[in-house]
Amino acid sequence: MTDMPARTLVGPADSLPEGQQTAVDVAGVSVLVVHHDGQFYALRNNCTHKDFPLLGGDVSMGRVTCEKHGAKFELATGKARTLPAVKPVKLYRTQVEEGQLYVSEL
Ligand code: FES
């Protein structure tokens, strides 16, 4: 038997409409969940520059902006696309099952 990765129920998928974001706890880690361009994305809710929470940051062009110093991270990969951040943010998996949105470790 393999260990199942920790999985957290966000709630009904339609409770997070396009353009909205929230944060949930996955195995003790705060994870940002974003609905952008018809997709759900999940990333660790900490900027890799100075650990500032990403929740509430502007989302556009598939990227979330850290409000502290303006680093941008790609939602699909977690890669840092704008300085001052250089390290990627940890990516999580999103799944919709029977209308419920879940986030789990990859
Ligand atoms: S803490 Fe995010 S850019 Fe500095």
UniProtKB/TrEMBL annotation:
GO molecular function terms listed in the Swiss-Prot or TrEMBL record: 2 iron, 2 sulfur cluster binding; metal ion binding
Keyword Acetylation on entry: no
Keywords: 2Fe-2S, Iron, Iron-sulfur, Metal-binding
Family annotation (SUPFAM superfamilies): ISP domain (SSF50022)
Protein name (record): Ferredoxin
InterPro entries named in the record: Rieske_2Fe-2S (IPR017941), Rieske_2Fe-2S_sf (IPR036922)
All residue ranges annotated as the Rieske domain in the record: 8-103
Superkingdom of this protein's organism: Bacteria
Listed Pfam families: Rieske
